[in-house]
Amino acid sequence: MRKFFTLFFKHNALLLFLAYCSIALLFMKLEREDAFSKLQTSGIEFGAGVNEKLINLTSLLNVDKENQRLMLVNRDLLMKVLNHETTAVDDRNRRKILDSPTFNASGFTMARVVDRKFSERENMLVINAGWSNGIKKDMTVLVPEGLVGRVISVSEHYARVMPLIHTDFKVSVVSDSSNCTGILSWSGGAESVAQIEHIPISSHLKLNERMLTSDFSTFAIRGIPVGKVVRIKPDKLFYSIDIRLAVDFSSLTQVLVAPLKIEPEKVAISNDSTLIEQIP
Prior knowledge:
Layout: H1 2-10, H2 12-98, E1 109-117, E2 124-127, E3 140-143, E4 146-154, E5 159-163, E6 170-175, E7 181-185, E8 193-197, E9 210-213, E10 225-234, E11 239-245, E12 254-257, H3 264-271
């Protein structure tokens, strides 16, 4: 024991140095483990953050793709709904014409109004029936409520219709009670009111009489309703007459086209100023 203490005191500086080195090494080891732990923790946090960003980015991409897919689905559903509603409206309007108890539509061609031009003087309609459907120029266009107009030009699948509410449109009409005849025209302005000319003040026309197309017309079949008399004002020789039109042009969707009225002999003799009696 004595030798141990003698050796300790003799080499105490070296022993203390070794002790200090051991303690230093211990602290260094502890510090390294703490730094490694911190580095490991930081790495885990960084990796988790990157994974979170990637997941969010993937989610955003997936959401964008899903939104695009849903947009396409909604578009297709919207088109189906619109087509269904349009078909239902067209079918309802078609059945309204075909089921009219006061009108026989057999032999007439049904068409849909696909374009219109409305103005104060020159209105025009386009229907989806042309010469491939048997439509010809000067055919009468009508609905069960009354006269619409006449065909003025035809293509393969479409036709232009000059409606009654056009300043160049004229047609011969007759009243259903007093049998007064005149020429219906439209002077512009309100699309629900037209005028009748050339009814003499000696006639017995009355308010609310119905006006129909007459047999004098060169294109319209007779008996088509045109409107009712709403104003009669006497002038020098003729009445100034307004009628409320039978057709509501603002809501016109489906129309009928009547077969062409072919009366070439009548037209020729009406236009001939020299009538010669032929004796058999």
